[in-house]
Design a protein that fits this description.
single chain; about 950 residues; alpha+beta; six-stranded mixed sheet; six-stranded antiparallel sheet; 48 strands; about 20% helix
């Protein structure tokens, strides 16, 4: 006799719907197994043949942290392409490489944590490089394209499962885990939610990751918006993955909950399904969940809801149907097509900001290429490891010939002399010494450590000439002649050991501080540890944080960077200055910038080049905008760090092989004074981004020049029941093939509330041969012209005139038409029936929005416990009211005025806590329609004002 084959369990039956299979699997998993699935590193269930699973694989512009992969331009550079189809193809390439890499290394995950759809509201945000644009429509278009490429086009199975980052209103690294973004309802619905919503509704998103910050006083990881908005946009099960360490922050840094059991339960109930905390150790999260179950804070059904969402992703990725998974054998990696795509993306990301005719460069030109980034191909925190590399210098050597290109980096060459007269010296080492900072393919590069296999620096009579760069704000790097940067490892010794600055805590940056006791002397402070450098018998090391422990150095310059630049610039026909940032220094995750200004070291180099040769081109290679003075510059370009093909792409554009077609995805402001406060998230009240900014931008949103010229003609508008069709003709009137980005903007002519000066509604990038024309048509749904009506808590199309503007940038409008739309007339606020929710104001001054309770709702309070004012327009009291019913907590005064005339006030003495609301009454009579002003004084929290009588 032979044993009967056990029947196939339903969860293995590919003929059944995923939902039924997941139902079956949940019944087979024990409670302990289901709880274990809630951690990022879900363990295997061997008795059911279920392997381990990890949420999270970084893939922002290529597969990251897992070793060699194709590296595409930074996300902000992809935004600058304004080319959704190109970005979709990049998503396909990245997900194909993820599949290929996973076939070799099962640590490579298929639940990819990208793209980042945070809007680039403020250009000083340290993570500007990770977003696509300041505009929600452009961000959504690029993010949707990338997620479609990552997902694949199979109707059932996904190539990878993308998770959007970082929900919500997250644009500051300063106090990022404790700061609260005050987001009024109009900004929430018209701005911050929009990019997430449009991308999720497109159907290629597997989930989202909440951000570290709080919104309106409530941590994003317990936000009711996950349920009220995110999950309402789709019928698909979405997986919400916490950011790293954020679940513990709810107690440890934010102090929002008293215990981790309460915090974990609240996050799970709000919608967090996978907890990224304590690295690979899931024991603490599972213990917290068990504790929450024991205390009755959670039920098994709550656990099942979260596990179901994770399993839905795993089934879609083909884990349970390997024979049916169409992507199981996908193995395209570093192909010729991927390399060509990386170059195409780098070319399309280049933005020509100014050109007085110097570009493209004429044949036979002699070039001087100078600057700190001229021979660099910089990587950022979310880059993969380069397989191929092209710096601007290398690209120009290849394109023009090395014999026609001279180079000067522009570093300051220095020796550091000790108080005893000796100099810092880098010992000679065997070039074959192996890197020991950590194996390639580390899941978390923050865990990599510095090298200790090399000898520490010493001091001797001659010393070593070091290349010094000031990256701004006095932050320095020092590089040895062999190209390695001075770095500090865990043992505290200083070595020339790093290929580049990097790491979660950068160990390659220093600051020279003037010595109080030695005229002309300096202390060398290591910024990674905060300690000062000293010279000891066993080598140069970082001592304590006290200045008395430090060695005093004199900086002896053997060559100034500007002198080297001036030398090569004087003998060239054209000078190319390549300036910008190192993505690991002064503006990165955990660190915001403090200024838009180009660092002084690089200004010196630019000034020296221009003084020696007026035919100087400035190429900015950076993760964010700069405020530079273009006066007198014949040509100016910008590109984000362009990945592996950056240098080749830049050389092709400079030579005219490719006409630049990139466009700015965010406003470039002229000065720091044009910027709002970093923590001011009110884009409407603060007049922020191109949507509301009333000043003169250095370069406006959507700006970008070409080597060609284009004529816009024949604007036509056709009105339909629910949409407008806008079309025009665009013609290349030049003699070169080039790309144009046609941009459609809208504007409400006479709105009843502040509306954008103009707002991007659609765009199209197209390539035209000389003399070629194309008809461009945009379908504009009327819903795109709606705004959020705070008086009634919904979107509304206001009747009236709307401008339809077509052009080459937000300020370069070529064609325009005005249409009259019926819309829905406004209505007075029905305050007699509904009262006033405090956060639904029309205008405010000195107010911030806070959480009404820990689970839902908003309240308002004066910023910093001072004084603030709220305005609610056109409040209808009907036949009349006889008083107000005011719901408040804290302590202070609430003053009520009608049409500017004070009519009542109430005083609240201190309550037990911020959520201990009391109801106070104030008698007055009023009827008809009035503007209501509420004044708040002191640390009072106002939730609602009702009206009686």
């Amino acid at each position: 006799m032979t044993a009967e084959t056990p029947p196939m369990p339903p969860f293995r039956d590919a003929s059944l719907p995923f939902a039924k299979r997941i139902d079956d699997l949940l019944t087979r998993l024990t409670l302990e197994e289901r709880v274990a699935f809630l951690h990022q590193y879900a363990p295997p269930v061997e008795r059911l043949g279920i392997p381990a699973f990890r949420t999270g694989q970084e893939a922002l512009h290529g597969v990251a942290w897992m070793g060699p992969a194709t590296v595409f331009p930074q996300a902000v550079g992809l935004g600058a392409t304004w080319n959704a189809e190109l970005v979709r193809r990049i998503g396909e390439a990245v997900s194909s490489e993820a599949r290929a890499m996973r076939a070799r290394d099962d640590r490579v995950g298929l639940n990819v944590w990208s793209p980042t759809v945070n809007l680039l509201r403020h250009p000083l945000w340290g993570r500007n490089e990770e977003g696509y644009s300041e505009d929600p429509a452009l961000t959504a278009a690029i993010a949707t394209a990338y997620t479609r490429g990552l997902r694949g086009d199979h109707p059932v199975y996904w190539r990878t499962a993308p998770v959007l980052k970082h929900w919500l209103a997250h644009n500051n690294e300063t106090s990022r885990d404790t700061s609260s973004s005050s987001v009024r309802p109009r900004v929430l619905h018209e701005y911050d939610l929009r990019a997430f919503r449009e991308t999720v509704e497109a159907g290629s998103v597997a989930g989202v990751m909440p951000a570290y910050n709080l919104v309106n006083g409530r941590p994003n990881h317990v936000s009711p918006y996950l349920r009220e908005h995110l999950r309402a946009w789709t019928d698909q099960e979405l997986l919400v993955c916490s950011d790293a360490g954020a679940p513990s922050n709810l107690v440890d840094s934010e102090h929002y909950f008293a215990t981790h059991e309460e915090a974990t339960a609240a996050a799970l109930l709000a919608g967090v399904d996978s907890f990224t905390d304590h690295g690979e150790d899931g024991s603490r999260i599972t213990a917290r969940v068990r504790g929450a179950l024991e205390r009755g804070l959670l039920t098994e059904a709550d656990i099942d809801t979260a596990v179901r969402r994770q399993l839905a992703v795993r089934f879609r990725l083909g884990e349970f149907d390997p024979d049916l998974d169409p992507y199981a054998s996908t193995g395209e990696f570093d192909t010729t097509a991927h390399r060509a795509l990386a170059r195409e993306a780098a070319e399309q990301a280049i933005v020509l900001l100014k050109n007085d005719g110097l570009l493209p460069l004429r044949p036979g030109v002699r070039l001087a290429v100078v600057g700190l980034l001229a021979d660099e191909c910089k990587l950022d925190w979310y880059s993969g490891t380069l397989i191929h590399r092209s710096t601007p210098l290398e690209g120009l050597y290849e394109r023009f010939g090395a014999e026609r290109v001279d180079f000067a980096e522009g570093v300051d060459r220095v020796r550091l002399r000790t108080a005893s007269g000796r100099y810092l010296a880098v010992p000679a080492v065997d070039d074959t010494a192996e890197e020991t900072g950590g194996a390639e393919g580390a899941l978390d590069p923050a865990l990599l450590v510095g090298r200790t296999d090399l000898p520490p620096l010493t001091a001797d009579a001659v010393g070593t000439e070091l290349a010094l760069v000031d990256w701004g704000e006095g932050v320095l790097t020092l590089r040895a002649p062999d190209g390695r940067y001075l770095s500090v490892a865990d043992d505290g010794f200083l070595r020339a050991s790093a290929d580049r600055p990097g790491g979660w805590v950068v160990q390659e940056t220093f600051r020279l501080e003037p010595s109080a006791s030695h005229r002309g002397g300096h202390l060398l402070k290591h910024l990674g540890t905060g300690g000062y450098v000293c010279v000891a018998a066993d080598g140069v090391k970082v001592a304590g944080r006290e200045a008395g422990d430090a060695e005093i150095f004199e900086v002896e310059f053997t060559e100034r960077g500007e002198d080297a630049v001036a030398r090569v610039a004087a003998s060239a026909d054209v000078v190319l200055v390549v300036a910008g940032n190192d993505p690991h220094i002064n503006g990165r995750e955990t660190e915001d910038r403090t200024t838009l200004r180009l660092p002084a070291h690089q200004v010196r180099l630019l000034d020296a080049a221009r003084a020696a040769n007026p035919d100087t081109v400035l190429a900015l290679v950076s993760a964010y905008p700069y405020a530079v003075d273009p006066t007198g510059l014949p040509a100016l370009l910008w590109t984000a760090h362009g990945g592996q093909a950056a240098g080749t792409a830049l050389a092709g554009v400079l030579a005219g092989d490719v006409s630049p077609g990139g466009r700015l995805p965010q406003t470039w402001y002229a000065t720091d004074e044009d910027l709002p406060g970093l923590l001011d998230y009110d884009v409407i009240g603060g007049r922020q981004t191109y949507l509301y900014f009333e000043g003169t931008a250095l370069f406006p949103f959507g700006h970008g020049l070409s080597y060609a010229s284009f004529a816009y003609t024949d604007l036509r508008v056709r009105r339909e029941a629910a949409a407008l069709t806008v079309s025009c003709a665009v013609t290349n009137t030049a003699t070169v093939t080039a790309d144009e980005v046609v941009q459609l903007y809208t504007r409400a002519v006479a709105p009843s509330v502040p509306r954008p000066r103009r707002e991007l509604a659609a765009h199209r990038r197209l390539r035209l041969a000389p003399g070629g024309s194309a008809a461009v048509t945009f379908e504009l749904p009327l819903t795109a012209l709606e705004f959020w009506d705070v008086a009634h808590g919904r979107r509304r199309l206001e009747p009236g005139a709307y401008d339809l503007l077509v052009g080459a940038s937000s300020e370069d409008i070529r064609l325009g038409a005005t249409v009259e739309l019926d819309g829905e007339p406004g209505a007075f606020r029905p305050v007699r029936e509904r009262g006033l929710d405090a956060a639904d104001f029309d205008e405010q001054h000195g107010i911030e929005i806070v959480d009404r309770t820990k689970t839902a709702g908003d309240a308002v309070t004066p910023a910093d416990g001072g004084a603030g004012e709220l305005l609610y327009r056109e409040c209808d009291f009907g036949a009349g009211v006889t008083g107000a019913v005011i719901e408040v907590a804290g302590e202070g005064v609430v003053e009520l005025s009608l049409d500017g005339k004070p009519i009542a006030d109430v005083t609240l003495s201190g309550t037990r806590g911020p959520y201990d609301y009391r109801t106070l009454t104030a008698a007055f009579t009023a009827g008809g329609v009035h503007d209501v002003r509420l004044g708040l004084r002191g640390p009072v929290r106002l939730a609602h004002v009702g009206f009686s009588g």
